[in-house]
Amino acid sequence: MKNRKNRYGKLHIRWESGQTSENVIQVWTKIELSGQFDIILLDIELGGMNGIETARQIRESDVNCNIIFITSFEQYSKGAISVHPFAFVDKPITYAQMEKLISDVYEKLQIDDKFAFKSNKTYYNISLNKIMYFMSEKRIINVYCIEKICTFYGKMNDVEVNLKKKQVDFWRIHHSFLVNPRYIEEYHYDKAVLQDGIPLEISRAKGRIYV
Questions:
Q1: CA dist 123 to 36, 50, 199, Å?
Q2: What is the percent of the chain where pLDDT is above 90?
Q3: Which residue intervals of 35-76 are DSSP H helices?
Q4: Are 10 and 98 in contact, with CB atoms under 8 Å apart?
Q5: How many CA atoms lie within 13 A of 114 on its CB side?
Q6: What is the C-alpha to C-alpha distance for residues 153 and 139, in angstroms, rounded to an integer?
Q7: For residues 120 and 48, what is the distance between their CA atoms, to the nearest angstrom?
Q8: What number is the average pLDDT over the span 108-131?
Q9: Which residues sit opposite 191 in a β-bridge?
């Protein structure tokens, strides 16, 4: 198994790999403990279980990851449909194909229940349930998550529009804050207090909207 970083064009990607189905399942168990991957590439002709059977095991714990089959065997395509793959790619796969596939997945993630953005040539995709709030500082958006803080260049109005398209409930309590209400412990006319005790200012115009 390998754990390395690689670059495909402008995309910065961390990836794990395994040579057999057993290796892949071991990698997947490790991934489940540290956070899910967004893309899984499976060679249908894996050693041990084939790629389709391996994908079925992965689907038992994750129905959202984007599985891409690498194959030169068209006869497997019908069986592979049952695990809802994102795409099929013929061998050998090129860097250009890989870059295009990742870009396509990134576009798909924009409309899923995750928030996707790019920062310093790295693509991020974070579950909206794990985001406590967004804070803007001029052209910089800080994404405050349960376990980390991420930043990217953008406008808070664009973030708000993006969230509304996903039909998720984030409150614009201030021109600088978009808050996930599930993390609000107390709500006052001038501030919202999160579960970890962090107070966020509520603008006068927004003070009574969410009460």
A1: 14, 30, 30
A2: 21
A3: 51-59
A4: no
A5: 17
A6: 6
A7: 39
A8: 79
A9: 201
pLDDT band for position 11 (50/70/90)? very low
Residue found under tokens 């052209």: 139
First to last CA, the chain: 53
> Which residue is associated with the tokens 């928030």?
115
Whether omega for the bond prior to residue 92 falls within 30 degrees of 0, making it cis, is yes
| 6's tokens | 């690689």
Please tell me the predicted confidence (pLDDT) of residue 12.
44
For 82-86, 154-158, 190-194, which range has the lowest pLDDT when averaged over its residues?
82-86
Q: Are strands 122-127 and 114-119 parallel, antiparallel or unpaired?
A: antiparallel
Count of Cβ atoms closer than 10 Å to residue 87 Cβ:
16
User: Does residue 181 or residue 32 have the better pLDDT?
Assistant: 181
> What pTM value is reported for the model?
0.51
Higher pLDDT, 40 or 156: 156
CA angle 117, 122, 124 (to 5 degrees): 40
Q: What is each CA distance from 3 to 13, 18, 67, 138, 206, in whole angstroms?
A: 11, 10, 19, 37, 47
The domains found in the chain, sorted by start residue, are 2-109 (3.40.50.2300), 114-206 (2.40.50.1020)
Model confidence at 129: pLDDT above 60: yes
Q: Which residue has the tokens 């079925």?
A: 56
Residue 112's closest CA among 154, 149, 167, 32?
167
